[in-house]
Amino acid sequence: xxxxxxxxxxxxxxxSLIKGRLDTLQTAILLTHLxxxxxxxxxxxxxxxxxxxxxxxxxxxxLQLPHVPETSTSVYAQYTILSEDRSKLQEKLKSQDIPSVSxxxxxxxxxxxxxxxxHQKGEFTVSESIAHQCLSLPMSPYxxxxxxxxxxxxx
Length: 155
Description:
single chain; mainly alpha; three-stranded antiparallel β-sheet; 4 helices
């Protein structure tokens, strides 16, 4: 039985699957992309740092930015902030046609796929708190400073 998983949000799936096969076309595209991967990692790092700088300059209460230790590098697959006012921030962004998403809105232990483990709400309070606060902002290696300022101005 094949499930249309692309139509079901990840937090609502009831099965855990790993798809690890690439077809020829996917492989060709990936190999081409690998040539520019180091450049895109550096560009994402710059975009992430620019978000940190721009967000530090505005007074937004209860906002926690991602922290990357000096001895580490982040590829910023997402730029995710934490805010006790996540819904309010997300609505403000949406009103300006700026996309944002909470990729981790449901903690793993509360997702149907892991229900057999028997965990209940309240068992992992830090995970649950973060799940209610996390919000990912637009992120791309090619996101301009002007676009980022538009995101920040929507707050």
